[in-house]
Amino acid sequence: MKSIFPEPILNLPEADIPLKGIKAFLSQGDNHQIIFMSFSEAVDLPEHAHESQ
Predict the structure, then answer these.
(1) Radius of gyration (C-alpha) of the chain in whole angstroms
(2) Based on the structure, what is the number of domains in the chain?
(3) Which of 44, 16, 34 is nearest to 26 (CA)?
(4) What local confidence, expressed as pLDDT, does residue 46 receive?
(5) Most C-beta atoms within 10 A of its C-beta, which of 25, 27, 35, 43?
(6) What is the pLDDT of residues 11-24, one digit of tens each?
């Protein structure tokens, strides 16, 4: 399957997401965190919350 992301995103570290059908790349620094996700199949994500950021 061809990626929807350009090479600079594909060169980021791959995020550890233990759900089948998800591939994710993580960019983070002192004042940002961005995750680029692609789904190869339908995925039900469990409800979750993040602490104040």
Answers:
(1) 12
(2) 1
(3) 34
(4) 76
(5) 25
(6) 999 999 888 888 99
